[in-house]
Amino acid sequence: MPDAPKAPITQDVLTLPRKAVEGGKVNLVGLTRDALRDALIAAGTPEKQARMRAGQVWQWVYQKGVRSFDDMTNLAKPYRALLAEHFVIEVPEVVRRELSTDGTRKYLLRIAGGHEVEAVYIPEEGRGTLCVSSQVGCTLTCSFCHTGTQRLVRNLTAGEIVGQIMVARDDLGEWPLPGRHPKDEQRLLSNIVLMGMGEPLYNFENVRDAMKIAMDGEGISLSRRRITLSTSGVVPEIARTAAEIGCLLAVSFHATTDEVRDQLVPINKRWNIETLLGALREYPKATNSERITFEYVMLKGVNDSDEDAHRLIKLIEGIPAKINLIPFNEWPGAPYERSSNNRIRAFADIIYKAGYASPIRTPRGEDIMAACGQLKSETERARKSRRQIEADAGLS
Ligand code: SAH
Ligand code: SF4
């Protein structure tokens, strides 16, 4: 459960200004195409050339993984020097990398201000998914989520979000060889899920800018169908996600009555199930897409009955949907237990028979606390365990 009262649900949280690094130099990672073009002009690039230069720089940074202007060999030397004078290419620092027995990799990343976030790479048959964080902590307090016990520290910048993809590609060693387009490769990092720490729709602009770079043909170059944004249900931002990002959508549904959902996903008190479903009905039409993924965490005796399964089917009627059942992942002090395998299978069966795909998500990277809902900053974790130790010793 949350260990401290939190700020009210709000979008008004601090994002670090972009112009933060060394001597006023601008980090060009995370700048939109237009912002980069403007910044290049401000640094002295002739206006007529700026669009082309921005494209060239993007290709070096996002397609070839280059981190030094010196390596941008199709640019004249004096121009490289000009870039180095005004810009840096900065990605989060990998503080630690943990490797699970199942091949999952968890990265502890340090960002400006000394804050820490986690990103998780999950290799699967024929694809590899990076689970990306959007905030340090979370303003919301979902009672089953480890991140929800951590106070929000700040929003990540677009550069810090796209930077997570870049450091994972560094670690996987998958920047393409010269002359080869990334699409030619069998990509190790082929999918992105915004399911790490934070509520992406409370950091909308930065998430959008980062995902635009991820989807751009001169950027990371992933299809919008390979990107899934997960929200707890920030209703006003759902239509905006369709209009301005257009990726796949997942929603943390988790309950079939407002009474239970108020407890599990407190944002439900602001936008209840009916309001949420209204927004979800419009999403596939607006994006001309695909199914919405309903995430449903299986909590013993709380939301896992046959009645819940039947109610769920009724609620989502008419929405193209897939129901992703997530066995609850435990964390120290968690107030819930995971439903039994038999219960989960019975629940899945009812949904499947109603005509919906109902995969049961295999927990990945549990041994390194990398599974869904287990992420939390290391500094915070350490602080908590110290407090715990003191409590155990009768010191507090
Ligand atoms: N804030 C966003 C995205 C991050 S959470 C959201 O809530 O959708 C990613 C997914 O993991 C969500 O569906 C979340 O509900 C789920 N989750 C959180 N804690 C969990 C836990 N302990 N066990 C299993 N799933 C969990
Ligand atoms: Fe935040 Fe998502 Fe965790 Fe809820 S489940 S506390 S919205 S990260």
UniProtKB/TrEMBL annotation:
InterPro entries tied to this protein: Aldolase_TIM, Methyltransferase_A, RlmN_N, RNA_MTrfase_RlmN, rRNA_lsu_MTrfase_RlmN/Cfr, rSAM, rSAM_sf
Domain of life from the UniProt record: Bacteria
CDD domains per the UniProt record, alphabetical: Radical_SAM (cd01335)
Domain Radical SAM core: 124-367
Protein family (similarity comment): Belongs to the radical SAM superfamily. RlmN family.
Catalytic residues (UniProt): E118, C372
Protein name: Dual-specificity RNA methyltransferase RlmN
Additional detail: Reaction proceeds by a ping-pong mechanism involving intermediate methylation of a conserved cysteine residue.
Cellular localization per UniProt: Cytoplasm
Binding site for S-adenosyl-L-methionine: G198, E199, S230, S252, F253, H254, N329
Chain positions recorded as [4Fe-4S] cluster binding sites: C138, C142, C145
UniProt GO BP: rRNA base methylation; tRNA methylation
Membrane spanning residue stretches: none
The protein's Enzyme Commission number: 2.1.1.192
Pfam families according to UniProt: Radical_SAM (PF04055), RlmN_N (PF21016)
Cofactors demanded by this protein: [4Fe-4S] cluster
Keyword entries, A-Z: 4Fe-4S, Cytoplasm, Disulfide bond, Iron, Iron-sulfur, Metal-binding, Methyltransferase, rRNA processing, S-adenosyl-L-methionine, Transferase, tRNA processing
The keyword Transferase is annotated on this UniProt entry: yes
EC class (word): transferase
Recorded GO MF terms: 4 iron, 4 sulfur cluster binding; metal ion binding; rRNA (adenine(2503)-C2-)-methyltransferase activity; rRNA binding; tRNA (adenine(37)-C2)-methyltransferase activity; tRNA binding
